[in-house]
Write the structure tokens for this entry.
Amino acid sequence: MNKASRLFWPTLVTPKNAVVKPTEQLSRSQKLLTELGLVKAGSNGTYQIMPIAQRTIDKCIQLVQRNMQAAGGQKISLPVLTPAQLWKKTGRLDGDISEFYMVRDRSGKQFLMSPTHEEAVTAMLASAAPISYRQLPQRLYQIGPKFRDELKSRFGLMRAKEFLMKDMYSFDVSLDAARQTYATVTAAYERFFRQLELPFVRVEAASGIMGGSQSHEYHFISPVGEDTLLQCSNCSYAGNTEVFGNEADAPSTCPSCQSAQLSRVRGVEVAHTFLLGDKYSKPLGATFLNTSGKPEPLVMGCFGIGITRVIAAALEVLSTEQQLRWPKLLAPYDVCVIGPKAGSKEQASAERIEHELLNQLAQICGAEQLLHDERKELTIGKRLLDAQRLGHPLTIVVGAKATQLEAPKLELHTSGSEKLELEVAEVLQLVTQHEQHKQQLLQSQLEETNSEQQQEQKRFGHVH
Amino acid sequence: MNKASRLFWPTLVTPKNAVVKPTEQLSRSQKLLTELGLVKAGSNGTYQIMPIAQRTIDKCIQLVQRNMQAAGGQKISLPVLTPAQLWKKTGRLDGDISEFYMVRDRSGKQFLMSPTHEEAVTAMLASAAPISYRQLPQRLYQIGPKFRDELKSRFGLMRAKEFLMKDMYSFDVSLDAARQTYATVTAAYERFFRQLELPFVRVEAASGIMGGSQSHEYHFISPVGEDTLLQCSNCSYAGNTEVFGNEADAPSTCPSCQSAQLSRVRGVEVAHTFLLGDKYSKPLGATFLNTSGKPEPLVMGCFGIGITRVIAAALEVLSTEQQLRWPKLLAPYDVCVIGPKAGSKEQASAERIEHELLNQLAQICGAEQLLHDERKELTIGKRLLDAQRLGHPLTIVVGAKATQLEAPKLELHTSGSEKLELEVAEVLQLVTQHEQHKQQLLQSQLEETNSEQQQEQKRFGHVH
């Protein structure tokens, strides 16, 4: 079980003689993350993740992985260092390169600290023995740090210079097959965002520096978003106004159905997908052997989810000025338990109830998902404030009323600041419901996936 | 379940017109990893990890994490980019810096692609609100890529320029307390290496560029090791000959007990621990408030395990010229199942047995731990060869003898190339034993840990 007294949790206390730099533009949630000691600003747009926030990152990684594997993804790791020469071949060093971190090794050879890995993964395929059409599709993903020397890094983790990303690269025999992969992987994306229980929208996007024929972005819908999105309520069209150059040039009627029922909402971009075609496989010579044994360029897609960005954006959408709020599946802990203060007259009997409660909770949600705030030198009120600011889905207080001889009660606080006085059995039932809801969120995915995988296997003839 | 036909598994076929570069010095296991398509050489001492090897890396990460958390470790993430300025403060840029990758951002500010994070983590502590003696010890760890521009990278993953590392940093109130942390963390290291079931030794080491007062290395004992170690059979002394400048200067009698019973063995370094004292906390101003409320420098330790190096070294020690062999807890899959060839006369009936077997195996070891080699277009012999080269702990063949009416038999092959003809029930029993052994390896750790944690809690007065 996690004990609050042992946690490394460096809440921010600005030293008296500190020079506060106004350069860093912090959003609401980023301000809370920093003040609460979950994230610390490193140098210049880089961030240090502290233990509580690291738990959320690890949960997010696991959730993304489940969905990628369900979509047929296989995990790999590509080096951070990519030879600049590969990027010259695809022409991506011809334009503005000011956002790239470039580094030379001791022999003078130039590398990029990779902002993305299309070149590296395509060159890897090109250097492998030619793959047969029978082995396709292949969908390879990794999770690791990416680097972009942003002119203006801001909003903390939301737009950092070093960030954590899940990137998947797909390889198919034809544009039709690649479209099928695109549909399968984007379905997995939608499942992931539904599991976070946040309003999101998929919009048509500009493919920009990536190139390729088709591209979509996933946005959380929120007034704090940096992008302006168009949504048609007459048809299913949704698009980023960026596609039209700038926002002012965006049309006032739907580009798809010409209806005037086109509204504008703000969005925070959290994922981006591209149907790349042969833009990378051609110049880098990545081919497969077709049914006649002749080499043809692989048809590619790429699919990114900003892990740290998803978390930052979710917090930005959900949190209040004073309290963090997390997607249920990503909260650092499911339940926080606050016990009696040392020296209070009910301490001994309340501690017996607390001990028994912790054992029962560990059975329900696993000891790892519990935070026990046993800082008994602090008042219950002070600890409850911390718990509310951290935004645990459920906080249980074992206080004076727990020791009442008739009808002993615990306090249950939800992250929505709802406060209930309940008997132990009622508390355990609500915790059980919370865990069941989490399981349902995970499970719904698996059932869909199984039927999808069966369909895919039929399509590709891999029925066993 | 994992299906061999769908795996991305780019076995090496040297193209006819390839120019083979003799610059890369490959060890036995690295040659196998490359030929079998588990790892691909990227550019110049960097490596791409393919899906089968990635499974082992993920298992190794999980095992290291369990042990770090059992030793009171809390997981964090520090940026790859560390400002060079911090390294100037500790004097580590004054010497030879040719092994460091240095990079400038768009404003001209210089960063290291971190080879290690003492400066970064200490500066982080220094910038936090002063920590109280009550909150110590703190033990923070991370797992991520590290960078070292080796003059001669060689032996593949064993000495790569970009490698995966677990690094822990500890903070204590005094040298005595730091020694206690050192004992707790190194006990966790020894547990980890015991769990890998490989012969290892802890030796006194030179602290080198890290500085500090005490330092130990962990080595796998193997004739392929690059280091020469001294071991005394009269007392418990063990040391790296590096400590004495060079091997020739190493003594012929034990430096500890003066006995002549000093033997030399070769070792592969896989981990390094340092008692750092205040070498970093003093120049960077990382203090805690002592019992009188006065600031004092934190007393530090640091503890590294090379994740990719441990795996490479374990394979080097265990494998034969033709076959990989894995520590049980790190094998990519526990069991490989090979079914009948398509078109064989026993195909239909053998497939029914195979199907039932797979279901039962999934119950015993979990579907995720199974590799089903269902490439029915290949002969059983060809697939068995692949399985033996990959070194699965257990490979089960459902062949012609499985369909005998009287006494149907399966073939069970161990990674030691032992071949048994067994009934289904016997096969299931051996798989069950294998899983039980794995569980025991994991469990022995937990029991030790619980008693250690209780002792620590008593020492630090955190008994609840």
